[in-house]
Amino acid sequence: MADTGPTPPSLAASRAPVTRRTLLGAAIATSATLAPLTAAHAAASSNGAPYRIDMHAHFLPPDYRNALLAHGYVTIGGYPTPQWSPERAQEFMGRYGIQAQVLSISDPGVSFLSGDQARQLAQYCNEYAASLIADKPTTFGGLAVLPMPDVTASIAELKYALDHLKLDGVVLLSSYNGVYLGDLRFEPLMAELARRNAYVFVHPAAVPASNKPELPLPDFLYEFTFDTTRAATNLMYTGTIKRYPTIRFQLAHAGGTVPFLAKRLALINGFSLPDPVNKVLPDIPAHIRGFYYDTALSPAASAMKSVLEVTGRDHVVFGSDWPFSELTLQGKGDPQPQLSDTFTSAQRRQVERSNALRQLPRLAKALHD
């Protein structure tokens, strides 16, 4: 069994037993849909010391992964639920010139549980992240997972995770049980995030089964990008971004389809709209310009040049999506060579390092940047 790193407080001792239900099996085969590793990519070699800061990287602490499997999550968005350990993460980072990973919990967060179980599992994950950072402060950062959609419990965990554990920011899903970020039900949490000038990574959520199109393809292939777009659009049109401009939102996977749809998303400005939108008058181009966009699974010029049409290079950050991208990243050297089709070497260093560290003062201080 792989070493799982520093031992956090035991979740098993503090939460009620989870109910095991029938595990899903057939979707494991979806891994075959991933693009094969190219020979050129596999042969790539690292140049110099690791420098990349990975802003879209996930971790699955032991009790968290066990809880996922116990509740039928053998796939996440159609991708087989991966194995993870600090040692495996560092081996991956070493192969691809990544100096530090800012770890977050992926979909479904802890929202597959409720009440005390969700609160305790969120706290377990956050304490695990904090223990990793304490052990390796220049190797790992961490974003707090919250027991959403319970707003009261989430605010309490936010205070604990940022004020006591000193995590680097927060990860939120694009939606919870079909309710998107920007919904007024989440307003108290947004106010608390804004008060802390929080960095918030918006990660897509799987489409609920009741709303899922009958297509034989996994969510991560395309639905994730659409869910990110829905959340970003709702954040803009409900006035959340205008009311709370100090929250720094990072959108996964180059913003989903936001850059491509930027002009279209602004067409509705000036129309007569229902409350609360017609009282907001959002500046859609400015809001889109203010998002941060990561490169995870989106380094191609078609994505990156679209991003640069709507925002500056200083709002692009590197992301690997590991270990959920593991089947496409089995070589070494340059993890995203396609970035060079859009950025010069100096610009890549800005995207892959400097932009992230400007948003992460704790990690920047640890790295003496």
TrEMBL record:
Gene3D superfamilies: Metal-dependent hydrolases. Residues 337-348 have a biased composition (Polar residues). PANTHER family: 2-AMINO-3-CARBOXYLMUCONATE-6-SEMIALDEHYDE DECARBOXYLASE (PTHR21240), ISO-OROTATE DECARBOXYLASE (EUROFUNG) (PTHR21240:SF28). Keywords: Hydrolase, Lyase. Residues 329-348 are annotated as: Disordered. This is Amidohydrolase. GO terms for biological process: secondary metabolic process. CDD domains: metallo-dependent_hydrolases (cd01292). One of its GO terms (molecular function) is carboxy-lyase activity. Residues 53-360 form the Amidohydrolase-related domain. GO terms for cellular component: cytoplasm. It comes from Actinomadura montaniterrae. Coiled coil: none annotated.
